[in-house]
Write a structure and sequence with these properties.
By secondary structure, the protein is mainly alpha-helical. It is built from three helices and no strands.
Length: about 90
């Protein structure tokens, strides 16, 4: 286990927690908090993969590229699905 990973994890946790509380207090909406949670989860996952599989430069880059493509495709899919479901019926 890399010596920096627990420090990164706890630091990211506290920053995300404080940022989530501030965003919720200011905006009174939950979706900014969900964005912060998803970013923190992504960083945790990437850090875990890097540490667990002892990835080097090429492996880290391929992991980030692969996950970016997955998220882009998922975002495109959900934007189409949600747009169709939430469109008001026109007469």
């Amino acid at each position: 286990m890399a010596y920096w990973l627990p420090v990164l994890g706890w630091g990211l946790f506290w920053v995300s927690l404080i940022l989530g509380i501030v965003l919720f207090a200011v905006k009174k909406k939950i979706y900014p908090v969900i964005y912060v949670i998803s970013i923190a989860l992504y960083i945790f996952t990437a850090g875990f993969l890097i540490d667990e599989f002892k990835l080097q430069k090429g492996g880290i880059l391929m992991t980030l590229i692969f996950s970016a493509v997955i998220f882009m495709l998922a975002g495109y899919y959900f934007s189409r699905v949600m747009k169709d479901d939430s469109a008001p019926a026109r007469k």
